[in-house]
Design brief:
Length: 291
């Protein structure tokens, strides 16, 4: 908040007036209390004036020292502010360059942009939310899955799509490390193509994969707590040992998925369109509710 010029001027005037008052009246008071009233009364006018001037000289020297320290402090503060401004400018330049790299036609450049984004999130915490949103958007753009895709699309998937491209895999890894994921926020990855993706042991809790295709994805030992898979394709996905506590599986297709040793399966959210879950899941859910 900017201070009023009138208030600043008034403050300066008050400080100067107080200082001048101290120079005029404080020396006499100090001399009298230093030597005692009787001794002070016995001093000649010249001796008393000399003593008061000595006190004034000492006060001025002390003030000079304080002003010097104040000047040093102000200079240091100005320097720190300049360093902060310069550093912030560098972060803005790096952030802008990383965004440009993510938009490159070359995979290696995009991969480098992902790495740069993660480094920015580690060194500049106030950029973390922006980095997370940008990387999520990057995955959606680079690996889209159209909702209207043919049901037989998996069968004709090109061979080079068997694994995620390096840039998308790097972005998924960065998001899973959660350096830039702010507490209480989710990562929106709706309608993405992550078929066959190697995501084992990733922390994807709270992520949203609504209407995404994760057929044959490796999700073993993943933390999928509160993760949304509504309408997602999880055919043949490896979910062995994953934590699915309160995961939203409404409309999800888990046909052929490996659900062995899954934790929290009794707590998942399902509906009539959910397919591929164990036949006894309803009994297990009722048993869990009765506990």
């Amino acid at each position: 908040m900017r201070r009023s010029p009138v208030l600043v001027t008034l403050t300066v005037v008050v400080v100067i007036a107080a200082f001048l008052g101290c120079l005029m009246f404080l020396p006499a008071w100090l001399v009298e209390h230093a030597v005692g009233e009787r001794a002070a009364a016995a001093l000649t006018a010249a001796d008393r004036l000399q003593a008061e001037n000595d006190v004034r000289s000492t006060l001025l020297q002390g003030l000079g020292g304080l002003l010097a320290l104040g000047g040093i402090a102000l200079g240091a503060a100005a320097t720190m502010r300049q360093v902060h401004i310069s550093r912030e400018g560098q972060f803005i330049d790096l952030f802008t360059k990383a965004i440009e790299d993510l938009a490159s036609d070359k995979l290696s450049v995009r991969h480098g942009g992902v790495y740069a984004m993660e480094q920015i999130a580690e060194t500049a915490p106030h950029y973390r939310g922006h980095v997370a949103a940008l990387l999520a958007s990057f995955v959606r753009q680079q690996a889209p899955w159209p909702k209207t895709a043919s049901a037989d699309a998996d069968a004709v998937r090109p061979a080079h799509h068997a694994e995620l491209p390096d840039d998308v895999a790097g972005a998924m890894g960065a998001l899973a490390r959660r350096t830039m994921v702010l507490p209480g926020t989710g990562i929106e990855l709706e309608k993405v193509d992550l078929r066959g993706a190697e995501l084992s042991r990733f922390d994807l809790s709270g992520f949203c994969f609504a209407d995404a295709n994760l057929a044959d994805a490796k999700l073993a030992a993943c933390d999928l707590t509160d993760t949304t898979f509504s309408g997602a394709g999880l055919r043949g996905a490896d979910l062995k040992g994953a934590r699915l506590t309160r995961a939203d599986l409404r409309g999800a297709d888990l046909t052929g998925a490996d659900l062995s040793d899954v934790v929290g399966l009794e707590t998942v959210i399902t509906d009539s369109l959910t397919t591929g879950l164990p036949a006894d899941l309803g009994v297990r859910v009722r048993a869990a509710d009765d506990q």
